[in-house]
Protein 1
Amino acid sequence: MKEFDFGFLAPYIPQLAAASRVTLTIGVLSFGMALLISVLVGVLRSGSLPKILDILLGIYVEIFRGTPLLIQLFFIYYGLPSIGILLEPVTAAVIGLSLNSGAYMSEVVRASIGAIDKGQYEASLCLGYKKFQVYRYVVLPQAFRVALPTLMNYFSTLIKETSLISVLSIAEITRIGNQIYARTLSPFEIYITIGAIYFVMTYAVALISKQIEKQSVKWNP
Amino acid sequence: MEPLIRVDRISKSYAEDAVLKQISIDIDHGEIVAIIGPSGSGKSTFIRCLNGLEQVDSGAVVIDGIKVETTASVAGKVGIVFQKFNLFPHCTALENIVQPCRVVRKIPLQEAEEFARSLLGEVKLSEKADQYPASLSGGQQQRLAIARALSMKPAIMLFDEPTSSLDPELAYEVFDTIKSIARHDMTIVLVTHQMNMVKNFATRVLFLESGFIKFDGTFDALMNTDDTRMQQFLKKIYA
């Protein structure tokens, strides 16, 4: 049986560290944008929208949930230039990842808003809150607590999905791992190392999620 | 002089079910009106029409010269206390009062906190300022809901069965609080099944049944009614 030796990876540590930073930056940036998209779409779709806008947002959600992320990334990076929209690889990756996760997360936000008692709307409207203020101060803080565990799960998923953006020639961990493999022909050590890096990132997200949940345990619905 | 609340021939239906039928009534400043009646008689719908939580199908409600279209049209003038409290669970007792003061009345934080603490004192909840609603008893939650409604300095307070989800002891606490705010020259409309509250407190009683006002008068006059149906009802709930 082959003896496994991780020592040969030492010269590649700076490259792997840089690639991890790229993965993390794109992951965090995409999650931030996905969160914005999901709150916007979730709030709009949980209110009484004009029919046409509701249909358009529904189409967005269904298309991004119903097609593979890889195809979406190919379309944004390779397809859009056909209609004159040329994007940098990182920009295309962030747009693709955030639109994809935003579609899934908007449904979580919508369901969480739906779980808030009707009495909360009535009480705040009777106190004189405007509709926007009802969401800002009353509904969203409560819905956030309901949605938090699921949203943080999506954050972990998103970090793992950044491996797909290697197809856009971005120097993130999977791509760098593949390059090291091509040079060293030692897939076992390389992919264990790459997997471990992803695991550390997603585990950190899980710890942060638990910490935030602990903070919000102070109150109960 | 114009009455503070003018209800002019309002009707309200849910699908085929007519809940309020051409109801008219004037309520003057400082009156304490108790609304009683059997379940499904339209009491809650009536009180919810007074502040725009329900839109009337026909007729009009006019509060201090303003036609009620939505809750926003009379939010500062009319406060409401619900049966289920509807406190903000993510805010402490203090924040439940401070937040609307800041958001709606635009009061600076320090001033809002001082005002909120004085209101908590009025409803005997000073020591609970930093607790969340879930850790308060039902009676304390309802008193907090009253303080929150009062923080908007309304001229009229509506109470929609404020004690019906509480046991008698806690209901008494809430009743005491309502009595104390009534001293502040406030107009009160109260839906309740607690006849002791009606007797000791209301200056006027309305008996609602099948969407109509069947009786409008004092408690004593109500107790001496000749109407057999009302006598039966009173016997049941006052026994």
Protein 2
Amino acid sequence: MDLTEFAEEIGDTGPVTIGGLATRGGPVDGVRPVMAPVGIESIQADEMTVRCGAGTPVAELDDALAAYGQCVAVPPTGTVGGALAVGQSGIRRLGYGPVRDVLLQTRYVSARGEIVKAGGPTVKNVSGFDLCRLLVGSRGTLGFLGDVIMRTRPRATYEQWFTTNDDPWAIMRALYRPTSVLWDGSTTWVLLEGDPRDVADQAVAASLVASDPPGELPNGGRWSMRPSDLASLRGTGRFVAEIGVGIVHHELPAPVHRADEAVVELHLRIKEQFDPTGRLNPGVTVLHGAH
Amino acid sequence: MRKHGPLVDDLRAALSPERVRDGATELSLYRRDASNMEGATSVVCLAESTADVQACVRTANDHRVPFVARGSGTGLSGGAVPLDGAVVIATTRMNEVLSVDPANRHAWVEPGVLNLDLSRQVDVHGLHFAPDPSSQQTCSIGGNVANNSGGPHCLAEGVTASHVFAIEVVLPDGTVTMLGGEDPEPDGYDLRGVFIGSEGMFGVATKVCVKLTPNPPTVQTLLMDFMSVEDGAGTVSDIIAAGIVPAAVEMMDQLCLGAVEAYIHAGLPVDAAAALLVEVVGLPHGVAADVDRIEELARHRNVRTVRIAADDAERALLWKGRKSAFGAIARIKPNYYLHDTVVPRSKLPAVLKQVYEIAARHELLVLNVFHAGDGNLHPLLVFDKREPGVMARVHAAGDEIVRASVEAGGVLSGEHGIGLEKRDMMPLMFSPVDLAAQQALRSAFDPHGRANPGKVLPSPATCADVQAVPEGAWI
């Protein structure tokens, strides 16, 4: 299916929902589902960009990019479109940056069934308002991603997990730009990438011991906390926190934050502008109190 | 005694008379930025707090007049040029670094803090603010947020949007709120992300939570020169394709090298067609390996000499060469027009060739000094504006350069923004449907169109008379 067919399928009336590999909740129940185009259109290694259909599985994209020694900083499961629409970063965010920095251009289908281009194809671009950042994390409530151009990054040629019982903030101070620092209240795991000699030197300097990565992370809730508040997690239950980032994989559901009234109002106005009849992913909420 | 209008009277009551200026000198100073465009303002407010900014925005709304926030006025696209007598809200006095959290690597700053001052203030913690526009000595963080500013070191680190966690803003209706947050995934749409680069049209930033980046333990700076521009540009693509993302990859062409060398005497290779300034940072072994690989790739592209800065002093000298290019060109001609487009890296040689051809056809000199690593061209047209008819040629050449860049698969602007300068070129990149979506976002933030109107989005043909483009605008 190409982008035009995708747009025709979405049409301009009636509720419609987008599905993928159902790794992030899947389409809305009882609503007519559509799937985005699938397939890698081009990999431009010397531009460090890749263009693909939003329905492309991340795993397929990752395999293809591996041949060029590159990768995209999105979590490894589901489709590219799902990863972008949900906007949650993987546990390497400390080193790789957030998902929202990955999307350079998209052609999405609007609530009116029109194909709309947002952003531009180059790695640097400040031409016009940043609709790409509006769409990443918007959970298909403003438009359905059709195809995308994303920024790639070099794949690490060497990586190693380590562990320590030292204070994770001391570890952060001792290391130069670790890829990930995870902490469960007592144990700290560290992922280092780069030249093997540098990794070894860093490990010695911070008294790290080579280890396996942490096991399965608690998945009762995904908490978003100020990095400076993570120490307060002790005694709240089983968790693994991303130090320096603030994501907490917790056994308990995330506490509900009350959004500021002005922010709620902005959400309502944006939704009204982009999907006045509420036909895209009806019932999906991005902000408590805004739908 | 001079009589002020009711708008000025109300602003004076809301702030203080001393900080609300409507003298001829101030009105003249604040009607332009660092571009060659001029607008008109009715009054200039020197804000010192969020409450001041809020009062200005509310008063402007009460009088149904537009307002324009302004930092240091170093913008090059006319983004801060006031149209239609807009109230100018200057944030230069809001210049405090409010707090620094070295452990979690962020700082809260006011919008008037100067870019380089921020990096200097946090250097004691071994940290810096990564975006480093060439104007970093004078440009403000508020302006960086409005323009999503870049700089040489944004190749590896990304532009301003990657370095801001949260922004306290005064929305166009005068409401104060927080967009984003110190936490990594605040609920809802990424309003922080869309505010950055919105060129003052979504409200006014009054506090910014910035990300601080650790200073690298090892830095190597290489100057490599080539006898052809193609070889230099080809080396850039080869470096990136090899999986190396240097901290910076800058290119200077022959005319630029000559001008800079005559100005600072750094021993630059003035007979080369092009030189690359490459900086690699990180841990020592990785940096050494990257430097070796870059040298090898450059040799395959016939590099003539490779000069590696031996110490901090030599590194500073090489960077001074790059950063003083704009001062140096004053030795050639008194005026310049600096352009800003991005092309795919692989198209650099072809587009540069077009740039030279375009300049020659319009009988203009062009120097190129730019962020080659991310394909961000900065052709610098130099001229003497006293020469009759020269401005028409400068504008025509600029127009062709932008079109050539977009036709090569590039974009209108990499870091200067659209502002007034490229507003009416937006259709080169975006269809009416694409532009309507951007207008929809603008309408959500600013239904009455009071925040910096007339910028970024071209007026629909049906209401082309809403605002006149000021004298000197290049469109």
Protein 3
Amino acid sequence: MSGLSVPMASAKYSLEFYVTLFNKDLGEFGGYYGRTYRSQAYPMRQAGGSWDMDKEDIIYFHTSYIEKSSFLIIECVIVRDIAGIKSYSSGGYALCDVFQFKGLESVDLIKGSPRNIGSGGIEAAFRSAKAGRVQYEVRPFP
Amino acid sequence: MPRNTFVGLEEVLPGIEGDKIPNPRTSGKLLTVNLLPRADLYIHNINMITSTAFESRFENFLRRMKQEKYRGAGNARGNLNNIVIDERKIIVSVNNTWRNVVEDAYTSMSSPNQQGVSTSGGSLTIKNFVCHPLVALIFRVEYKATIPMPNGNE
């Protein structure tokens, strides 16, 4: 992940990610549904000119709606902790196919906040500037 | 857990063994969840303290609501004095903090006596109640009133 090129020396950085469901056919620019998941804060490490977080998190959900127009939106939130005072900023978001089950996938992290999708639509989001990569895998259960 | 709700491995899901979904990386299995023991629950002699004044206020509220609706409708109005509560129900749900689990059960309540106490007409059976401190019984009161319609129906 880029975008944190000038970190403050006295601050600790960690990453939370929020996961929610989005369907591009809901309303004019699509809409969110379901409950957003918020992960724990995972420490980030600096690797060359970018930041990395290689912890794995496993989440479950069940649904009766498996249209391929649905996406998983993973928002990466950077948590900056200076002497116990935390501030949060968006590190970008990823649009992930959720009901395609293609195994381990790596997708672009798009700069900005996923709220941008509400004003520009999903196609505009795909064309936006990139901030990094996210890896994920969706597995079905019988 | 409800549909379209993401649940992480750290989140508490009352009703399953250990309260959390086991990590498939350490348990060696993809998804094995064992449920806690369940028991049937019987609830008898439910008494609900209301008051006749409360019910009158509720009937008046319905009367005013209908008056508003019929305002300007000429003679097309029913006899609004006939609005009465004719059924009181207690509906009991079981909730595990994420959603209602197991089927709701309900029983009818009598009209309140002079002390304002309604009593249940029968006992309630909750099947497969999950025995866990974070699983709650939720009592919901439902009133059913008959409202005469302008065409004479109810």
